[in-house]
Amino acid sequence: MIKVKAYAAQSATSALQPFQLERRSPRPDDVVIEIAYCGVCHSDIHTARSEWGPTSYPFVPGHEIVGRVIGLGKKVKRFKAGDLVGVGCFVDSCGKCPSCKSHEEQFCQGHTVFTYNSVELDGKTPTFGGYASQITVKDKYVLKIKKGLALERVAPLLCAGITTYSPLKRYGVKKGKKVGVVGLGGLGHMAVKLAKAMGAEVTVFSTSPNKELDAKKLGAKKFVLSSTPENFELHAGKLDLIIDTVSANHDFSPYLSTLKIGGIHVLVGAPPEPNQVAAMALIYGRKHLAGSLIGGIKETQEMLDFCARKKVLADIELISAGEINEAYERTIKGQVKYRFVIDAKTF
Ligand code: NAP
Ligand code: ZN
Ligand code: ZN
After folding, report:
1. Counting atoms of ligand 1 from 1, which one is nearest the CA of 332?
2. For residue 179, what is the domain's CATH number?
3. Per the structure, how many domains does the chain have?
4. 287-345: per-residue pLDDT in tens?
5. Is the CB of 133 within 6 Å of ligand 1?
6. Which ligand is closest to the CA of 328, given by its number?
7. DSSP readout, 52-76?
């Protein structure tokens, strides 16, 4: 076992504090990674606070992990010491079911082993996330990162990047398409950059009037202040696709009104409570309400390569581990620009 410094929550109401955990020594197909940076996703906060159901404590969050290979199992051929690598939201799956065979391990019909608050395939060993100095991961679930990029700005691609890239790709975003992005936070700002890089015209819907200038700088053409209902009228029937990243309860109906006939409103934001939608908002115009969960390993690698090619990286605020609780409060208030990333040297 390898002793590793980390940060953990001990209960749904306690602040994150320093914690020591043990990672397994590498098995023949494992990669040992020295973590350089870990992004702070709103899912970390939902889970730390048991907002999606009871979490197992101690809980070590973090699934936007980048670092360097420092150890290898003897069967690993894809990596060598010093390689830059990433780990996202899951670290194992059955590998045999139809979902795994079709590169959608996030929907494994056996058991997707999520990076945190999950158990290994043995059904009992808990998983701990990337708010830590090291992690050991099976090589098939480790992503390759190209050299020459600002590594701290790559970290958020491992969740925020793939979660928004996947539905943009699935629904055919390209030049000539009009994409709406709801909520300008970690996922939202990546959705804007990625949709723009794919050639789309982007409209941002935000509750924060002070984000208008940023939305335009990130690549949006239009900005709609969503707290004023009349603002939606101007945009009625205009969009092909909406990526909804909002982390709190909201009514979908006004957004559906901005879709073209047959348009698609994809939920990636996962508010803990059920939301509202008027049936008529879907019926008139044959609209679709859909969901999307991160992406498989193959698609995540494709996204990382796309981002390297197009120079699409997250806009981040680098913090030390000791600043994590304050960062959570600012994220909940929608005040992060646009992703907190922890410098793993500070664990
Ligand atoms: P985030 O950085 O906190 O961004 C969420 C944004 O939603 C905020 O910046 C804010 O944007 C808007 N918002 C917040 N509260 C709101 C409210 N009460 N009403 C309307 N808008 C509000 O969070 P994130 O890390 O991007 O994650 C967003 C959500 O996606 C979370 O629920 C997270 O768990 C989920 N998630 C899902 C997946 C998946 O695979 N489906 C993956 C990762 C994360 P404005 O200030 O612009 O309004
Ligand atoms: Zn996430
Ligand atoms: Zn499977």
Report:
1. 3
2. 3.40.50.720
3. 2
4. 999 999 999 999 999 999 999 999 999 999 999 999 999 999 999 999 999 999 999 99
5. no
6. 1
7. TBPPPSSB-----EEEEEEEE-TT-
